[in-house]
Amino acid sequence: MLRLVAGLMAVAVVSVTVLMDRYSFAGPQQPRLPARSFASEPAPGAEANNLFWVVQVTDLHISKFVSPSRTSDFEKFCKETIPIIQPALTLVTGDLTDAKAKDGLGSDQIEVEWQTYQTILKRSKVMEKTKWIDIKGNHDTFNVPSLESVRNYYRKYSVWQKDGSFHYVHRTPFGKYSFTCVDASLDPGPKRPYNFFGILNENKMTELSALISESHDNNHTILFGHYPTSSIISVSPGIRAAMRFALVYLCGHFHTLGGLMPVLHTRHPDGTLELELGDWKHSRKYRILAFDHDLFSFADLKFEEWPVVLITNPKSYLYSSYAHEPLQRILHSTHIRILAFSPSPIKFVKIMIDDIYLGDAIQVSGPLYVLKWSPQNYSQGFHQIAVTVEDASGRSATQLHTFAMQENLSLKFGLLASWLLLNDHYIWVRTLFVLLIIFQVVLLIIFRFREKPKFKEPPGVAERTSFSLHVLSKTDLFFYSFLVLHLYTILGPWFVGEIIEGHMGICFSFGLIINGHFFEGSSTFLVGILQVLFFNLPLMAYTCWCLLLRCQGQCFRSHLYLIKPYWTVPIHLIMSLLFFWQVFSCYFLLKTYGTLSFFLSPLRTWLVVLSFFLVYRIWAMESIVLRTFIVDMKNYQAS
Fold first, then answer.
1. From 212's CA, which of 239, 314, 582, 637 has a CA 20 to 30 Å away?
2. Helix axes 523-531, 476-491, angle to 10 degrees
């Protein structure tokens, strides 16, 4: 036993170490590809040159039915926040509309939501103040049968109005910056929930690779899309290989996991940053990105929290990359540089490094504030810069980060955040789903052909469990019922229905077939895991327990008062709750994919009927059928 525990501990330590090495990349990451050659000049100084900034906002979810403040706040953002910040570009990275029915279960493109979005842009005149680039998210493709369909309202009401990946080149006197959209939205677009993962098929992958190749001679390539790379299924060479020459990939979609992960940032092995942004829907988040002498900085902000502060030089070490940025310019710079925005005049910009006050920065032009410094004083090790800004209204904000000028230092991104962004989730959910099915099938087959268990010790939980599985597997009705259920879960169609309105489709664990198109399984495997863990496996365990009671001579009435109630009541209650969960999933299927899918759903509706039948057979079964097992149980208990 001690050897087993020691072995398990060793495996756990090795696993954690591998995870940390795989997912917690240091900053700046040593690149796999050759680092670009950068000149040390021009270096950041006191002039307001070689600088521009961009705003990103994502997951607006403008809704006809819920949260009117979501819409009014967004209009205020366009009317007031954008004019204060005055970004060169504004990127809206998908889920412009909510596209959910009033009950929150069904999904469809609701034209009034798109009209509201367009009206806000026109009424606020925001397109006159910034270059507005909006792209599609998964909600913007719910129930869209084709790109040419009249339900593809993105073509009619968005600003960009063009489907597919594209790039926009921002030209400045000091260089060109390519902003390349990664469009992984589904075409055709199924209703929810099987529209969570993006797909880059061969044509889309070729198109994207060509766009990225065209921008190699630009100062920087910035990728942006709706889906994080971990939720994109892509053909060879894959999304991560295609984006290795990009400085950063900007995305949304994960909504900070409902607030559990407010910061979802990481770096890929080739040095490309991936920065997921919190949603506008609930969090009212937005982001400012600055390019100062080709040094990249950003700040994730909350709507109506002023003043806004962004330190552009020296930049954060964690978000630095020698593969993509001229980081040596920090060492040659003459001034600390800060962007400060507020509706009220800025009162002061106070700068401290390593808790030592350096002075107040002075305004050069617009939001740019600078303070002379000697970077050579900070050429060794880590240092922390803190900038406090106060405006005339008495509001203040402080931004701080760690900077350094050496290449051989290390800072780590969060392990969980890196795992969420760098892992291909459709692969592990597929693997887990298949392993769960194999486990159930193998368990049934082993006990089917295993000899009658012999026990030398007084009966315990393990012995009773083994005996109950022995009974279930040796009883044809239950063995074949569960064997077919497990195999059908992985092989058979789950339901047939209108996955897109007016278009029949078939849902399997391994994917969707809609209108002649096949979409590789992704969300389906996650749904399959939930189905197995929250119903299939509990139903088999519940059946084993009931059969054990029957072998002990109990009937449905007697076991309620002869067996201790603190065992029977919780077990029946838990199984009842799981049964109602299964019934609700049938109702959800009805609301999302229509009446036909409700009746043609072996894994949902038919399984409810099967569950009733199996439970009925357990308690209605004649004792003579279980005679052999009852005798075995009596001999087992007598031992």
1. 314
2. 160
